[in-house]
Specification:
- The structure holds 2 protein chains of 2 kinds.
- Chain A is an alpha+beta fold.
- Chain A has a single domain (2-135), classed as Rossmann fold, CATH 3.40.50.
- Chain A contains 5 helices and 3 strands, in the order H-H-E-E-H-H-E-H.
- In chain A, helix 1 packs parallel to helix 5.
- Chain A starts with a helix and ends with a helix.
- In chain B, a hairpin with a 2-residue loop joins strand 4 (162-163) and strand 5.
- Chain B is 43% helix and 16% strand.
- By secondary structure, chain B is of the alpha+beta class.
- In chain B, the strands form 5 sheets. In chain B, strands 1-2-3 form a 3-stranded antiparallel beta sheet, with helices on one face. Chain B has a 3-stranded antiparallel beta sheet with strand order 6-7-8.
- The radius of gyration of chain B is 21 Å and the shape is globular.
- Chain B starts with a strand and ends in a 10-residue tail after the last helix.
- Classes of the chains: A alpha+beta, B alpha+beta.
- Chains A and B meet through helix 2 and helix 4 of A and helix 4, helix 5 and helix 6 of B.
Amino acid sequence: MRESSSALRALDGVEVVEAGPASKVLDLLDGVDAVVLVDAVRTSDGGRQPGELVRAEAGPSGLPAAIGSSLSSHGFGVADAVALAAALGRMPRVVFFGVEAAGVTMGQRLSPEVENALPQLVARIVEEAAALAEDREP
Amino acid sequence: MTHRSVEVPVIARVEGEGALHIKVEDEKITDLRLEIYEPPRFFEAFLVGRHYSEVPDVVARICGICPVAYQMSAAHGLERLFDVQLSPGTRELRRILYCGEYIESHVLHIFLLAAPDFLGYDDAIQLAADKPDIVKMALEMKRIGNDIMATIGGREIHPVSARVGGFSKAPRPKDLRAFLPRLEWALAQMPAIADLVGSIPKPPFDRPAEMVSMVHPDEYPLNEGGLASTEGKSFDSTTFEEVTQELHVEHSNALHSLMVGTDTPYFVGPLARVNLNVDRLTPVARECLPRTGLSLPEPDPFFSMSARVVETAVAIEEAIRLISAYEPPEPSMAEVTPKAGRAMWVTEAPRGTLYHRYDVNEDGTIREAKIVPPTAQNFEHMEADLRQFLPGVLDRPDEELTRLCEMVVRNYDPCISCATHFLRLEIER
C-alpha cells in the first residue's frame, strides 16, 4: 500500500483511500471521474492461482458477474456498491484489480504468493491511475 | 413423510458470513442452525499485554460500520476505573459522534439491507433502478452520518481521535455547525420516511420476548446509563456478567447469550431500546413513532425497521441540539493515570447493547479482555424466532419461505464480523 501511495500521490488529482467495509465504497464512487478498486478475490472453483492478478472494467450495470461472485459479500459488498451506483446512473469509470487469495483462514500474514504479486500489482495500479488521470476531462 | 428444507449457504444483506440450515419433516422442525462460519478474529486475545491507550484503536477495528461503539464502551470503562475527570464538553462531543454512527448505520440498514425485502425487490440494486429518488435520498442521509464521523473522528473509517481521556483533537465549532443545514434537511425527510415504512405490510409474528437495553433518566441512552429488561430486570455494567451468560454453540463461531437462571434468550437493539425508552424520545421521533406503525409495547422483530426509523430521527435531533450548543472540550484530552482493577462499561451500539470488560495491570496494560457484542447476544433469539415463525408459514412455496427466514435474521441487522471476534483457544500441553 505504502509504495503505491507515494507513486500515486505524485499524480495530479489522484487520492488513495483505504476503503474498509464496502458500504464506504458507495460514498467513494460519488463525485469522482474514475476509480481503481483493489481487493482480494477468491474464485470458488479454484480457477485462479494464488497471487494471480485479474483486471476488470465495470460495464453499464456494474462489475462482471465473475468478479462479483469472487468478492466476499459483507452486507453490502464492493460489487453491490458499483452496481448500485450504476443503477442510479452515477457510476464513474471503474477499473477493478483483484489478487487471488491463497486462503481465508485466520491469521494476519499475507501468503508468499500474494506477497510476491504485490510489486507487479502496484506497478499496474500506478499505470492505470496515470492513464485514467490523463483521460479525464480537463 | 414430507420433507422441506431451507438452505441458505450465504445469507445476503447481513454484515459478515453466515448460513442457515433448516429441515422440516412432516411439519416438525428436525434441524435449525444459524451457522456462523465467519472466521473468529481473536480480538480479546490480542488485547492482552497492550497498553490501555492502544485499546480504542484496536477495538475500532472489530467493526467497520460501528467502530465508535467499540471505542466508546472501551474508553468510558477505562476512564471510570482510572477515575478520569473528563473535560466538560467531552461527553457531548462523544454523543454527537455516536449520533453520526447511528445515522450512517441505521439508514444503510433501513434502505439497502431491509427495505428491498419489505418492498418486494430482490435486492437494493433493483430497488435503486425502480425508485432511484428514494435511494439517492437515503445515500445522502447516510453520507451526513459518515461525514460527521469523519469530522470528529479525524478519518473516514476507524476514527483516530477517540482516546481514553477524550479526543486527541476536537473539531472547531464552525466545522460542526456546517452540518446543521444538512441535518435540518434530513430531519425534514423523517415524517415521509416514517409514513413509507408504516405503509409496508409486515408478516404477522406474535410471540413474547424479553428485550434488553440501556436506560437513562434524562436522555435517550447511547453512552451512559443502567440496563433494564422488559421482564422487569434492572442491572448495570458491573453486574452484566452475573445477569447474562455466554455459551459456545457447536455450529457457530459466535457465542450465544442467555439470561442466567432461566437460561432463556433475550434480544437487544433498536426495538428493545424504543420499547424501554419511549419517554426519552425527541419531538420529531415521537411524532414518527405511530406513523411507522409502531404501537408499544411491541416485541415483534419485523417492527425493527420502524424502530430504526424512530432512532434515526432521535440521532438527527440530538445531533442538531448538541452541535448548536457545541463548545470544544478544553483540553481535548484529560489527564489519565492508570490503576489496576476491572473496567466495565456498556454503551448502545446501533445494533444493541455492547459490553466491554478489561482487567488492567498496575502498569496500565491489559491482562484480560471480554467483549460481548449485541449481535452475539441476539443469535439465540434469532434461532428461537425462526423456530416459532416457521410453523406459521410452511404453506408458502420454497423461495418465499427462504426469503421470509432470511428476513427473520435480517430484522436483527446482524453484524457477524463483530460477533465472531472471539473464540476461546484451549491448548493442551
